[in-house]
Write a structure and sequence with these properties.
Elements: H1 2-23, H2 33-40, E1 52-61, E2 64-71, H3 74-83, H4 86-94, E3 108-113, E4 120-128, E5 138-142, E6 145-155, H5 163-172, E7 183-188, E8 200-208
Antiparallel strand pairs: 1-6, 2-4, 2-5, 3-4, 3-7, 6-8, 7-8
């Protein structure tokens, strides 16, 4: 019974933090990013440990073209990015102000799928449908649908590959996965993916195809 009470306390605290985040006037305003961090700093680490889902919701997803590169693993992708920032080159080639497309559209994306039996990992950006693909890059097209989104808050070395804790939280919110859903991604939002005083940050884990 004590464990159930603790779990309920954690759930209630996360929902309280989520409401404060939703009501914070920061979206799209880099100067207000610190306000989001002040909210997350209210998480009481003496009561539970991170990573934790601090927000779960459904988001409309326009028909789009993902442009980037496919790698054998996330480590390979980030190793190449560190040696030669191909994502900056891609942005320059696209000549699109991604920030004007939609909320979070300027975020770098770590796109994944199990369609081939093994995990595919891509690094790049979502762009408008039919965007020309620059030389040296590949693409995947996606129809209009909805995303199941979870914001993961925690230390920088523990917030990645945390789908296992996002899925049940989305289901708790009544979000259902479509039968043909096979893609998901990490969204590294420039506004949220900054560290606070504790060395914690936020990434979005998003599942393509929910209702």
């Amino acid at each position: 019974m004590d464990n159930l009470i603790k779990i309920k306390d954690v759930s209630n605290m996360c929902k309280d933090i989520e409401m404060r985040i939703v009501n914070a006037d920061y979206i799209g305003k880099q100067s207000n990013a610190s306000r989001l961090m002040k909210v997350t700093e209210q998480l009481d680490e003496t009561r539970f440990t991170t990573p934790v889902v601090i927000r779960a919701y459904k988001q409309h997803f326009n028909a789009s073209r993902f442009i980037g590169k496919k790698f054998n693993s996330g480590k390979d992708a980030w190793d190449e990015k560190m040696k030669n920032d191909f994502t900056l080159l891609l942005k320059n080639h696209l000549k699109i102000d991604l920030k004007e497309l939609a909320e979070d559209a300027d975020a770098l994306i770590g796109l994944m799928s199990m369609r081939s039996g093994d995990v595919e990992y891509w690094l790049g950006y979502f762009t408008p449908e039919n965007t020309p693909v620059p030389d040296g890059f590949d693409y995947n097209d996606f129809p209009e649908t909805h995303l199941g989104v979870g914001w993961i808050y925690g230390k920088e070395d523990e917030i990645y590959a945390t789908e296992r804790i996002v899925i049940p939280r989305l289901q708790e919110e009544g979000i259902e996965f479509l039968p043909d859903s096979q893609w998901w991604f990490e969204r590294y939002s420039p506004i949220r993916n900054v560290t606070d005083k504790r060395g914690h940050a936020i990434i979005d884990i998003c599942f393509i195809g929910v209702k």
